[in-house]
Design a protein that fits this description.
Largest interface: A-B, 87 and 87 residues
Distance between the termini of chain A: 48 Å
Order of helices and strands of chain A: EHHHHEHEHEHEEHEHEHHEHEHEHEE
Number of strands of chain A: 13
Biased composition (Pro residues) (chains A, B): 1-18
Protein name (chains A, B): LacI family transcriptional regulator
Domain HTH lacI-type (chains A, B): 19-75
CATH class of the largest domain in chain A: Alpha Beta
Shape of chain A: elongated
Region (Disordered) (chains A, B): 1-20
Structural class of chain A: alpha/beta
Keywords (chains A, B): DNA-binding, Transcription, Transcription regulation
Oligomer: homodimer
CATH architecture of the largest domain in chain A: 3-Layer(aba) Sandwich
Largest sheet of chain A: 6 strands, parallel
CATH topology of the largest domain in chain A: Rossmann fold
CATH superfamily of the largest domain in chain A: Response regulator
Chain lengths: 344, 344
DNA sequence: TTGAAAGCGGTACCAT
DNA sequence: ATGGTACCGCTTTCAA
């Protein structure tokens, strides 16, 4: 970081205390109650227009901002929907999903907050979330057990929704069945006549919860056939891909499901550099249906993944919040379908 | 979404009230004060071992979780660092930056919260953030003016840090000078003998604050030379790229800076399909130094971007929080350097 | 139409 | 070593 010379400090260290509604009341010459009525447009109470004006002016003059904690403490509830911030590099799919969800929940007057719990896991994390008394908690991935759900509910969360590989007792569950992704890919390769199938498993941490089910899905698709499945650990580096490609002949595979499109590109490039013809010698298929796959030559076959729409999920949350007694819903929300292009 | 049959509701609608420290005290047969002392390990007070045990047991039995709002209300401050959640698809660079930052702030005992303000802008957003009384606010991008900074400070934020194109009055500013990125690219292309330079400007919303400065940077690099700069609006779609490529001859450009590596790949593919030779006919350079650029043929030249380290930024925040009176620091934090490969 | 006051859940001072 | 209690900022009866 390059320091840039700054003007000398012009604000003296006089950190005035933060203005409260009492300050506003004092300045406006009214009671705190009146301030509250005015600023919240309380319909049950009529306040005269002159008073309203004085209150508003006082508030503006002081730069008054209400204290959310005090408010929700008094109210006994908030409209905060909490989700843990993702701790792995997140693709455009998930990015967009989050955005959409935030927008949809915002429309329903919820506030979405992503809580950065890094290095904190499982029930410990659940406790930390519970301290904020969110009205709902949305947890992607595994990592939240029935214990955690229970902690959250006992601390007032009216809805706990998990988005993961399996349903969690007591919580609404959106099943994102990544096995289906692998199953799709496996079946496709099999149908195309491939029998010696490699499956790339990323070396990077945090991806296991996606990669393992995808691998399992391939295994399941090929179970009971004469096809073989070979696990191919691979770090996301050119070097690693080259090494893998170098022993390709000896691996004797005629197809590879590369975990996702990015790994597929990595593998495809390494194989091509090694003189392996795609798809003649080896078929390649990725997943996520990224733009980049369309741009590769040969065009990359892929498994298109459909995440739940943010709107649907927002509605599920809202329903759950309004009716916390209802039985947890379980939905399969991950649509997987092959997009066949030229690499397979 | 596919509905899966559920077991009948087994929890009756008896949502017990959330246990408070008073409940714990009652169950343990002690006062609320004692509960507080025990659960916080208050060192100024000795509590006998048997009492401690009873309190801990009672807390566990009730599933007691302290109420963060009440605590910070009483304490008069929290350790929450708030940042707005990004509302645009975020690349691996930024993803990693956030992760690192959360980790580093976590080590300093701060809690990072990404606040989902979608559809709320400028000072309105600042007010919403201020309601949470964060101890520090970190704002990427433009969109926060001196007004907003003032609102935040007056509501108790001890540090406001902006990460954007220009410094904001009253806030610590980390200057992410995307002009430098464009300047790098422009100079590089000029040095390689190119004179008719196109600059891709993404059509997607939310990217203007990056793309415009990058364009300006190219302009600045080429100002006063005989080189020309042509703005090339482009949506991130194959179609749009094809249309652009179709009129390439008539555009008569010998180089293009493609905003970033992803757009570069899009453009490169379209140009190659059109029979334009790279780099002979047209040089291409991207930005962000993604893995994918290394995998393209020809290998993609790019502008490597160095974001500030999460640790450094966390330390800046901590320093600012501990010493709120200090003059705002301003740092240039965006390192840009050309990685010359084969496409330019 | 407005004000006084109770209380939300903790913490910390001052007694005991 | 422990308990009583005031107080943080705000909302909401209830009374005037």
């Amino acid at each position: 970081m390059v320091q840039i010379p700054n003007p000398p400090p012009h604000s003296s260290p006089a950190p005035r205390p933060v203005p409260t509604s009492a300050d506003v009341a004092r300045l406006a010459g009214v009671s705190r109650a009146t301030v509250s009525y005015v600023l919240n447009n309380t319909s049950a109470v009529r306040i005269s227009e002159p008073t309203r004006r004085r209150v508003h002016e006082a508030a503006k003059e002081l730069g008054y901002v209400p204290h959310a904690a005090a408010r929700s403490l008094r109210a006994g509830h908030s409209r905060m929907v909490l989700m843990p911030a993702p701790d792995f590099p997140v693709g455009p799919l998930y990015s967009q999903f989050i955005s959409e969800l935030q927008w949809a929940l915002g429309r329903l007057d919820y506030t979405v907050v992503q809580y950065g719990s890094i290095g904190v896991y499982g029930d410990e994390a659940a406790r930390a979330w519970a301290e904020l008394r969110p009205v709902a908690v949305l947890v992607p991935g595994a990592g939240l057990g029935p214990q955690g759900v229970s902690v959250l509910k006992r601390s007032g969360a009216r809805a706990v929704v998990t988005l993961g590989p399996e349903c969690v007792d007591g919580a609404h569950s959106l099943l994102m069945d990544h096995e289906a992704v692998g199953h799709c890919a496996g079946s496709h390769l099999f149908d195309r006549g491939r029998r010696r199938i490699g499956v790339v498993v990323p070396g990077e941490a945090g991806l296991e919860s996606f990669s393992q089910p995808r691998l399992e899905g391939v295994r399941r698709a090929l179970h009971g056939t004469d096809a073989t499945v070979t696990e191919l650990p691979l770090a996301y580096e050119e070097e690693a891909a080259s090494r893998l490609a170098a022993r390709w002949r000896e691996l004797d595979l005629d197809a590879v499901f590369a975990y996702n499109d990015e790994y597929a590109m990595l593998v495809m490039r390494a194989l091509q550099d090694e003189g392996v013809r795609i798809p003649e010698d080896t078929a390649v298929i990725g997943a996520d249906d990224l733009m980049l796959g369309r741009l590769l030559r040969p065009r990359l076959s892929t498994v298109h993944i459909e995440l739940p729409s943010g709107r649907d999920l927002a509605e599920l949350v809202d329903r759950a919040v309004r009716n916390p007694g209802a039985a947890p819903e379980t939905h399969k929300v991950l649509g997987a379908s092959v997009v066949h292009r030229d690499s397979s």
